[in-house]
Every structure is written in structure tokens, then in C-alpha cells.
Design a protein that fits this description.
Radius of gyration: 24 Å
Order of helices and strands: HHHEEHEEEHHHEEEH
Structural class: alpha+beta
CATH class of the largest domain: Alpha Beta
Largest sheet: 6 strands, antiparallel
Number of domains: 2
Distance between the termini: 56 Å
CATH topology of the largest domain: Beta-Lactamase
CATH architecture of the largest domain: 2-Layer Sandwich
Strand order of the largest sheet: 5-4-3-8-7-6
Number of helices: 8
Shape: elongated
CATH superfamily of the largest domain: GAF domain
Oligomer: single chain
């Protein structure tokens, strides 16, 4: 027997959930057995355990039939926002052809790292890529600093307690001078400017601008970043322009997630 065929009970449980979900009226165990062509004993045993685990409910007693259980809502709460933000991100990027000049990325904070959950490479193919699943030190990336800077003071102090400056890794890029104190200043400036800048801290010759993304509750759920090769001149004027762009993009994305702050 193949390994993926060795758990028939799990496959039957998923079929039961699908069956119950697509029926307007609750189904009892006998109906489940008949519609799925299962032995009655197996059907009764499965729905009993699934009810015990909260995957099914019997609002009128077992003879009255089963409906989807409330425990499934706990999982939906975790999955739905993540999927919503990815869909909204890709839709937003597709609506702005001017973003073709940038690599656009989306990351979430995970401890003292950021994890990239979405990325769209620039049209010219310059050498900066954020593969989905890539982890980088949050304190040196623009998307990480944007999320840290948008935290309330209590949450940020808790984060610093868990990840004190003395534990921070060395910057991925040796370009420029960078100290923990200067990074703290950059994080603090996010509240004033609305965005953070990775000035060749991750990759020499590349700068990235990022702003925080909020959900319907106002919580910071991601950082949206745009990256491109750093110009040799006109830094300040172009930096301000890109900063305004990324703030506008992150605000639009936040609104689509229900944020009204």
C-alpha cells in the first residue's frame, strides 16, 4: 500500500466535512454512510469522534443530524487573513504598471526575522530577489524596520526584551557604516516618515523602501517593500518620491484588508 493511501480514516473524515458543508440541512450518520457508501459502523464512529473534536456539531442531538463544528472557525481565522493579504497584494501590484521598475515584496515578522510571503520581480531583472520563504534579519530589512517602527511602544519594548541589541547578527551587507544605535534611530523614524529604508544593508548597491500594512483590527500584519538599484546621484529627491509611493501602496493594501485608521 502506498504511504498516501494508508490513512483511509482521514480521507473519509474530509469527505464527510465536504458532504456536510454542501448540504443545507443537517445529515445524520446513516445518511452520511449511504451517500458516501461507507459501512454504517465506520460512519457512526467517524462522526462521533469528529463531534468530540469539534469538527462537527449535532445541534438537535445525534439523530437530528450534523453540521460543521465551530472548531473549523479557529482555523479559518488563521488561514483567511493570510490568503486575503496575498490576493490583495498581487491585485494591487497588477493595478500599478509603474511598479515594473521595482521589485515589490511583502514580508511578515517572525521573531527577529522577516519571512517573505510574496514577491514580484522588476521587469528589468536587476539582481535582487526575495523568494517566498526567504528569511532575513528584521532589524536590517526595510520591511522589518517598517513593522517594528509601527509597533506600539509596549510591544516594541517586549520585542527588544526578547531580542536585545547584543544578540543582533551582523548586517548581511558590509556596505556603509551601520550600528545598532543607528538602526534604532531608523526604526524610530518610521512613525514620523511613515516608511523605512534599507540603504544597502541587505545587498550592496540596492536600496529598499517599505511601509507597514495594517489589518481590520489596526494590527501590523506585514511590511510592503519596493527595491531597486541605488542611484549614484539625486538620492534625497528620489528617496522622498519612493517613500511616498510605498506609503500610498501600503495604505491602499491596508484599506483593502479593512483598516480604517
Amino acid at each position: 500500500m502506498k504511504e498516501n493511501e494508508s490513512v483511509p480514516a482521514l480521507r473519509r473524515a474530509v469527505k464527510i466535512l465536504d458532504l456536510v458543508a454542501h448540504h443545507d440541512t443537517p445529515l445524520n450518520a446513516a445518511s452520511v454512510a449511504r451517500l458516501l457508501d461507507l459501512p454504517r459502523s465506520s460512519a457512526h464512529g467517524l462522526v462521533s469522534v469528529m463531534t468530540e473534536l469539534g469538527l462537527l456539531e449535532a445541534p438537535s442531538g445525534h439523530n437530528g443530524g450534523y453540521r460543521l463544528g465551530r472548531r473549523l472557525l479557529d482555523w479559518v481565522v488563521q488561514v483567511s487573513p493570510h490568503q486575503d493579504i496575498l490576493n490583495a497584494f498581487h491585485q494591487l501590484v497588477g493595478e500599478h504598471p509603474e511598479l515594473g521598475a521595482y521589485t515589490v515584496s511583502l514580508s511578515t515578522l517572525d521573531g527577529d526575522d522577516v519571512v517573505y510571503v510574496a514577491s514580484r520581480a522588476n521587469e528589468k531583472g536587476f539582481g535582487v530577489h526575495y523568494n517566498v520563504g526567504l528569511r532575513l534579519p528584521a532589524m536590517y530589512t526595510a520591511t522589518g524596520m517598517a513593522q517594528l517602527g509601527a509597533m506600539d511602544s509596549i510591544s516594541f519594548r517586549k520585542w527588544l526584551t526578547l531580542y536585545p541589541l547584543s544578540s543582533w547578527p551582523a548586517p548581511p551587507s558590509a556596505a556603509g557604516s551601520l550600528t545598532a544605535a543607528s538602526v534604532m534611530d531608523d526604526i524610530a523614524s518610521v512613525r514620523q516618515k511613515g516608511y523605512a529604508v534599507d540603504d544597502e544593508q541587505i545587498q550592496a548597491g540596492v536600496w529598499c523602501f517599505a511601509a507597514p500594512v495594517h489589518d481590520v483590527t489596526g494590527a501590523v500584519v506585514a511590511g510592503l517593500g519596493v527595491s531597486q538599484p541605488k542611484p549614484k546621484s539625486g538620492h534625497e529627491k528620489e528617496a522622498e518620491s519612493i517613500g511616498r509611493l510605498v506609503v500610498s501602496l501600503s495604505h491602499t493594501l491596508s484599506l483593502r484588508l479593512g483598516y480604517r485608521g
